[in-house]
């Protein structure tokens, strides 16, 4: 047997011995090790062997992938959350938004980062004149995750504000805030002037501009203002980034705003679902 063949055999023997040594560990120890990886790695580990499968599917591993306050969060769900294991719960919370707080917010776990995502419904936002039925119309929409959304009938002063406490979000994470909306076929006056968007946390503030209709927009975006771009979403809505911020873990209030108040023209046809906060990729 040549030297290369001997070396290969030794390497294979070493790997087999290492795997055997790992499998000799108690399942609880393997679960603890796997809990320091990621959900994707845990699923891959389950394919190694029966012993690894038991450890990778255990509650010990998957509870580490859930937020520390997951029990409090699911207690706010509008309907009971049923699950037989922590892995099943993680899959549920990362696959579809959970409607909480009387149907005014949704919660979701980002399956790639294990970070918290929230969406504030239109009812959770402060929208100027939204209580006036001549200005705004509240109605259920089949494509909305919330019981109702709101459509702009006609105003000249458009201002939408939202706020959330950083303690609800994952610490040590950079978040983006996004206005989620649609433009009705009858939409008018929304692109004459650029809209202003901003996110403010403590002393930090980021600002930008947005033209809802680039062809209609008559004013150039100021050079120092970053122009935001409309993006289609997988759920059929549109979104625009209001800004981003870093959540270092201390308790602060995040203030988010979308407004077009300089133009005197009438505006209509904006359908608002809410503001989403999710980790930046």
Automatic annotation (TrEMBL):
Annotated PROSITE patterns: FBOX
Signal peptide region: none
InterPro entries in UniProt: F-box-like_dom_sf, F-box_dom, PP2-like
Top-level division of the source organism's lineage: Eukaryota
Residue stretches making up the F-box domain: 19-65
Protein name stated in the entry: F-box domain-containing protein
Species of provenance: Handroanthus impetiginosus
């Amino acid at each position: 047997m040549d030297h290369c063949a001997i070396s290969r055999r030794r390497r294979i023997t070493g790997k087999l011995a290492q795997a055997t040594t790992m499998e000799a560990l108690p399942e609880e120890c393997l679960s603890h090790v796997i809990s320091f990886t990621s959900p994707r790695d845990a699923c891959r580990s389950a394919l190694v062997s029966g012993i690894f499968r038991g450890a990778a599917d255990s509650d010990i591993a998957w509870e580490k992938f859930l937020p520390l306050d997951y029990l409090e969060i699911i207690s706010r769900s509008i309907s009971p959350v049923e699950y037989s294991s922590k892995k099943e719960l993680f899959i549920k919370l990362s696959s579809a938004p959970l409607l909480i707080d009387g149907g005014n917010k949704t919660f979701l776990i980002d399956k790639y980062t294990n970070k918290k995502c929230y969406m504030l419904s239109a009812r959770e936002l402060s929208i100027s004149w939204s209580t006036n039925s001549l200005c705004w119309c509240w109605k259920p929409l089949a494509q909305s995750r919330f019981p109702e959304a709101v459509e702009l009938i006609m105003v000249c002063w458009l201002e939408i504000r939202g706020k959330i406490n950083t303690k609800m979000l994952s610490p040590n994470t950079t978040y983006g805030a996004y206005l989620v909306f649609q433009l009705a076929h009858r939409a008018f006056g929304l692109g004459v002037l650029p809209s202003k968007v901003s996110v403010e946390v403590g002393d930090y503030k980021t600002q930008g501009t947005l033209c809802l209709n680039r062809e209609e927009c008559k004013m150039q975006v100021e050079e120092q203002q970053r122009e935001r771009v409309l993006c289609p979403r997988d759920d059929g809505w549109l979104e625009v980034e209001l800004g981003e911020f870093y959540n270092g873990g201390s308790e602060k209030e995040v203030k988010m705003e979308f407004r077009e108040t300089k133009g005197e023209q009438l505006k209509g046809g904006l359908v608002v679902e809410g503001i989403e906060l999710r980790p930046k990729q």
